[in-house]
Amino acid sequence: MAKQPMLKFVQVDRVMPEKRAADVRKEDFDEIYAEYASAKAEEQASRCSQCGVPYCQSHCPLHNNIPDWLHLTATGRLEEAYQTSQATNTFPEICGRICPQDRLCEGNCVIEQSGHGTVTIGTIEKYITDTAWDKGWVKPVAPGAERSESVGIIGGGPGGLAAADMLRRAGIQVTVYDRHDRAGGLLMYGIPGFKLEKDIVQRRNDLLADGGVEFVLNCDVDTARFDEIRAKHDAVIIATGVYKSRDLSMPGSGLNGIEIAIDFLTASNRKSFGDTVEDFDNGRLNADGKKVVVIGGGDTAMDCVRTSIRQGATSVKCLYRRDRANMPGSQRETQNAEEEGVIFEWLSAPKGFTGDDKVSGVMVQKMRLGQPDASGRQAPEVIEGADYVEEADLVIKALGFEPEDLPTLFGQPDLPVTRWGTVKAAFQTGETEMDGVYAIGDIVRGASLVVWAIRDGRDCADAIIARFNSKAAVAAE
Q1: Bridge partners, residue 472, by sequence
Q2: How far apart are CA 285 and CA 279, in angstroms?
């Protein structure tokens, strides 16, 4: 009888790849986890219970065929594992690095619920695709036949790039327009290198270009440019993401030294490319030698605190108005940050800032959790008389993002938006009320996960292909 390759979660413990020591990794922006060796990847994949109802798959926005590629990995069929992974996910090596698996696939793993420790799905996904790149299994798109239809995509983030990939596979001509000098959006400029190495993003961009995707970079889309793009293409996808930072309006909020997260992270990432960044070089967006306070509890806040540590801050504190159990960011990232020396001040919220011209401190009010609010989470309440001042040379606001006013920015008053400013688009297809104009990702959902943007991009591409096919069929009659 053949040896059972799976269901080894009782005999084999959960083991993550080795993590570099905190005092070493905080000195650079390199990946903090080592790669699995093939034997260890096979061993960890073999822990999968191959359950009849795979909750890992159903709780993945892309519905990745996780049990299948775990089985293929466990049995040494790695190229097939890659093909299975790539079939549902345009960027598996990126999702393996930055997806909050603890809230999605791994958090819903059946053996995790039974107390045996989840299968390390994310790290195995990363290992599969990194190996595929090393072995040369990842190839540029080569459609069977080219088509005459073209699509313009405004925004080169994960949603736009996922749509571009799917459209090119169908032979459709694709042009991506991006405001930056490199495509990738927040993958390139928002997420630090210790979570997502930039060569990982760039090689995907290069692969898309090799497959026939045209990139128009340094392209700010205004009224004239939007009309030009719409006239040039048979369909347009708006995939701009949300970049407008939420702000604080309180005493002292206009002081120098109070910055927004996206500016701070973008400056750091640009320096990693070797770019000249004046506001980093003059110290404004550089944490070196400073007492840093980050306000917020999401993944962006975690990126800011861990970046500050690596830049040489003398102290880094994170203020969050709820407790640890209620923070929206990844628990894994919080643990990594604590290991690296970040101090979390839970149940703490700013009420103002001290300083003359430049910030010298954050006025903090202590909170407690009261009754649940409309979202179902316990609402923070101020504890009277417990205020104090937290010293700070640099304050970074990581309070989330809101959409830009696209109808005004693009000069398109007919572009429908919600009361939150997000674009109104049909579920699954991304189709808007403007003929031939689609919208996907965060500009529709609000600030969300990369994996959801990929899902939207793929779904929208399918809808556009179906529309083109329908038009072609009618024309042929």
Answers
A1: none
A2: 6
Q: Which CATH superfamily is domain 150-242+403-476 in?
A: FAD/NAD(P)-binding domain (3.50.50.60)
Backbone angles phi, psi at 285, to 5 degrees: -110, 35
**Spatial CA neighbour of 433 closest among 411, 415, 446, 420:** 415
Q: How buried is 429 (Cβ within 10 angstroms: 0-12 exposed, 13-18 middle, 19+ buried)? A: middle
Amino acid at 233: H
Contact 134, 146 (CB under 8 A): no
Q: What is the dihedral of CA 157, 163, 168, 173, to 10 degrees?
A: -80
Q: Which among 86, 284, 347 is positioned nearest to 204, based on CA atoms?
A: 86
Read off the DSSP letter of residue 427. Answer: T
Q: How far apart are CA 275 and CA 189, in angstroms?
A: 12
pLDDT along the chain (477 residues), means of 10: 64 85 95 86 92 93 96 95 97 95 91 87 95 97 96 98 98 97 96 96 98 97 93 98 91 96 97 96 98 96 98 98 90 93 97 97 96 86 96 96 94 95 96 97 96 98 97 85
CATH superfamily label, 247-401:
FAD/NAD(P)-binding domain (3.50.50.60)
Containing 86, the helix (H) or strand (E) segment is helix 78-88
Question: What gap in Å lies between CA 283 and CA 257, rounded to an integer?
Answer: 10
Strand partners, 345: 319
Q: How many whole angstroms separate alpha carbon 406 and alpha carbon 277? A: 28
Q: What single-letter amino acid sits at 234? A: D
Residue 274 — left, alpha, or beta (φ > 0 → left; ψ -120 to 50 → alpha)? left
Residues in the chain: 477
Number of Cα atoms under 13 Å in the Cβ half of residue 175: 15
Q: Is 145 exposed, middle or buried (0-12, 13-18, 19+ CB in 10 A)?
A: exposed
C-alpha dihedral (45, 49, 52, 56), degrees to nearest 10: -50
Model confidence, pTM: 0.94
